[in-house]
Structure formats: C-alpha cells, structure tokens
User: What shape does this take?
Amino acid sequence: MSPAFPTRGERLHASSWRERWLAFRNRTIASPGFQRWAAGFPLTRGIASRNTRSLFDLCAGFVYSQTLFACIKLDLFAILEPGPLSVQTLAERTCLRPERALRLLKAATSLGLLRRLPDERFALADLGAALIGNPSVAAMIEHHALLYEDLRDPVALLRGEGGASRLATYWPYAGRADDSAIRADSVADYSALMASSQSLIAEDILDAYPMHRHRLLMDVGGGEGAFLRAVMQATPSLAVRLFDLQAVAARAAERFAVENLSDRAEALGGNFRTGPLPKGADGISLVRVVHDHDDDTVRHLLRAVYDALPDGGSLLIAEPMAGTPGAEPIADAYFGFYLLAMGSGRCRTSAELTALLAEAGFQNTREITTRRPLLTRLLVCQRIDTDERK
Assistant: This one.
C-alpha cells in the first residue's frame, strides 16, 4: 500500500521536476525565434500580443502617469465636466498651443481618460469622470511628484544610498521615535493629504461596520479628523476622540471647533510610538496607520491599544493589505516602493495582522467585507480579559 502522504524524496523530486520545467519554459520564451513563431501562429498570436502590450506598458508606465499628472495640473477634467469641447477651446482654456493640446488630448484618450467624438470634440470618458468625483485621488497624483524623485534611481533606494528621501522629509514622523523636533508648520501638507485619503475610504468603513454600537471611538493617528467627522455625521449619538502628534492634534482641534463639533469631539496629542494611549474609549480605530510602520512599532502600538481598551472593547484596522486578490501590484509594487522611500512600513496580509493582534492579546479577529477591498480591508477584534491576563 502506498503512503497516504508523499515522502520527502517524492516532494524533492516533484520540486526538482517543476524547476527543470520552469527553466525550460523560460529558455523557450526568451528565444527570439520562439517569440517570432508565437506572434505568427494562430493559437498563440493573441497571447503573444497581450504579453507584448503588457511588457510595453511596464516600460511606458511613467509616461502614462505623467500624462495623467498633466491632465490634473491643467484641470482638464474639470474643464470638460460641463460637456465636450473643441481642441481650439481646450487649447485656450489650458494655455497650450493647439498642436500641443491635441497631443495631450490624444494621449489621454488612448488611456481611457477622454473620449474623442465624431465631430472631433473631446469629452470625458469613464476614468476621467471618476476622477472628478474623487478629489483625493487627484491630490495623490500631484503628491506623486515626490515619489518619482525618490525613484529616479530605484537601485540606490533599495541599497539605502543617496541620503534622505523626499518622502521621508514629507512624512516627518516616518522612522522617527521622537516627535519633539517636528514643527507645527511641517505637518500642514501631509495632514491635508491624509485628510483627503481618509475621506476616500471613510464611507466604505462606515458601510461595513456599525459604529452605533460604541459609546466613544478613539481614532489613533487620525490626522485632522476627516474620518471622525464622517463618523460623527453618520452616527449622531457617538462621541469621538482623536489621538495624533501634538502638532497634528492641534490642527484637528481647530477643525472641530470651526465646524462646531467640540462638544462631541476632542483631540489629544502624544506619540503612540513611545508612550501609552489615553483610556476611556470602548472602540479604537487605526485607519491606514499600521502599514506605515515597521513590526516593532506595530507591536508596541497594538499592545498600547490593548491596554487602553476596556474588557469587550473593539479595535478596527482599516488599510490596504497584501494578498488581496486582484490588488497584488498595489500592495507589493506601489506601496512596497512608496513605503521604502518613506522610510518605514509595509503592507501585511490579513494573516500577518491577525498574528500580530493575537500576540498583543486580542481575540475574535475577523474580517468584515468592504465595498472596495483594493483600497481598504477591515479587521475587527476584541479585548477579552481572561484569568491569565488579569
């Protein structure tokens, strides 16, 4: 009778066979002769064409992104929002020569941002129209100018050469345990960007999780309070607390006061990287915070959250996660290099986050489905005191 499970020798043999097959396959695909044959053979022509296009898109990706950046900088989508316009009118509105305006319009059309009509006018296509409804995306596109500077030499970035990156300067807390040197005037730009990115996903979180079950929600690393303002609007009975660096919390307090929310919202300053968190909240949220930090900082933060919560209190973690089907390039390529340039952090899988939560003492960790998991996924867990932990 054969064994129920493959032996070690059988596993090694299978692995060796797969590696030999992979090596043969790679040598074949790399052959110029095979590539010419595949491009002409009817059964492989479509595959060869798609692979050629995919490879070219990787080579030309920077040009595509800069085309999008030019459209944003020239406010092209807002100009076209009322309806289609001619090349001449668009050239005048964007202060471009007509031939240069046409070049941009054709490029944007090829990328699915615009549509060229039979009468030679141009109109918004679906992607261009979607950007109008998502101003936070436009803010991120403009912000990417810093990332492109840091990626000018990606090998130097990977090797840690070349000194401080532009993004590390932009996000002054990255890789820094002491916030005493962070000036109030240095947090304005990144706080505004955080506010725009949080507002993009706030509705998805609120659609997925019923906030009314809490009495007081504390948002740690909440910036100027964009997420909490959305929470308060959706849940009028809920009181909220924001905790962030002192300079950032001061800006949040001003926003709460201007919007007459101070009776329900408070903003406290401190550093979760080094100290404890205020107690009293029965719910704590971390919205796009964990992936900004390395494992040691995350462990300290999760333990601080555990200590701040009462028995039965809940923690919500909302952020893009590695291993999300269909979003692999977002977590592994985009955020992989963005966070490297920033100086700390990485996208983690749901399983990795669950393990870190269990290490901190949390139980009943579960994922709640969100509307757009490519942008954010949501984990919820609880502090449940046991005799061993008391």
About this structure: The chain has three domains: 11-39, 61-133, 149-382. Strands lie at 114-116, 122-124, 216-220, 239-244, 265-269, 283-287, 314-319, 363-368, 377-382. The mean pLDDT is 88.
